[in-house]
Amino acid sequence: MKTNPEIDLSSVQSVYDGPEGVLWELVMGEQIHIGGFRSSMALAEKAEIAAGTHGVDLCCCNGAGMRFLVRFRNVASVHGIDATKTVVDQGRQRCTDEGLSEQIAFTLADVTDNTLPDGVADFVWGEDAWCYVVDKDKLIAEAARLVKPGGTIAFTDWIEGPTGLSDAEAARFLAFMKFPNVQDLAGYKKLLEANGCDVLIAEDTEQFAPHVDLYLDMLNKQLTYDALKIIGFDLDMLGAMGGEMVFMQELAKAGKIAQGRFVARKRS
To answer: Which residues pair with 105 in a beta bridge?
Structure first.
C-alpha cells in the first residue's frame, strides 16, 4: 500500500471545508464519486440492498449516497458518519430541504472512532471516500463491528490499479488528492477476510479513466468560469490543478489507479 505520512485527517478536512470541495462538487455533481447515480445503483444491486433495511454510511460527506438509498432502494434509515463539519452541516440541511431528515441521521466524528453500537446496521456503505482514511485496518474493523452477522459491507473506492504506481507517481497523486494512502483490490480483500467477512465481489469498475476524461472535458469546455469563481479567479491555480488532473488521467489509462467495487458479507 502506497502511503504519504504527511497527510492526515486535518488535511482532508481542509479540502472539504474549503473551495476545493466545492470545486469537486461542481465537476462531479452532488454525488462526489465516479459514476454518480449509475455507480450507486450498480453497487446497490450487486450488494442486494433491500427495502426496509437499516444502514451506516462511513465517510458520508454531504449525504448524497444516503439520499440515494432512501429514494431509490427504499431503505428504512441510514446513519452517516463524517469528520468534516462543513459537509455534515450541508448534508443535514439538504435532508431537511428534501423531507428526508426522519430517515437520515448524521454524526460528526472520525469514522474509526465513533459511538454507534455494535451490529447496528444491516449494511455498511461507502462511495469513493475510504481513500481519505489514514488507518484502513481500523476502518474495515469498524465496518465489520457495525454490521450485523450476515449483513453486508458494500463500497467503492479509489485504489491502486493492477499496473501499480511507482513511488514518485504515488507521492504526486496522494499529495494532489490529499489521500494518506491508497489500498488495492488484494489489500481490501485481505482486510475484509481478516475481519470475519466473506468477499463476494472485489473488482475494477473500469470507469475511472473515462470519467476523468469527462471531468477534464467539462472544465475545459463548459465550467471554466464557474471553477475560476470558486478559486478567486486564479488562472495559475486552475492551470496547476488541471495539470494534476491530466497526470491522474494518464495514471488511470495506464492501469495505475482505478475505482474498485467491493461487496462482502459478515459471517454469522
So the answer is: 79
Measured at the alpha carbon of residue 114, what is the angle toward residues 108 and 115, in degrees to the nearest 5?
A: 105
pTM of structure: 0.96
Task: Compute the Cα dihedral for 155, 157, 161, 165 and give only its sign.
Answer: negative
Q: Contact at 8 Å (CB) between 117 and 142?
A: no
Q: Name the one residue in this structure whose C-alpha cell is 492526515.
A: 8
- The cell for 9 is 485527517
Amino acid 163: pLDDT: 97
Query: Contact 243/176 with Cβ under 8 angstroms?
Result: no
Q: Cα Rg for the chain, rounded, in angstroms? A: 18
At 143-181, the pLDDT tens digits run 999 999 999 999 999 999 999 999 999 999 999 999 999
Nearest of 74, 34, 52, 56 to residue 152 by alpha carbon: 56
Domain CATH number, residue 143: 3.40.50.150
The residues facing 263 across adjacent strands are: 154, 201
| Domain containing residue 229 | 2-266
**Residue 158: strand pairing partners:** 259
Cα–Cα distance, 57 to 81 (Å, whole number): 6
Total of domains in the chain: 1
* Distance of alpha carbon 109 from alpha carbon 114, whole angstroms: 6
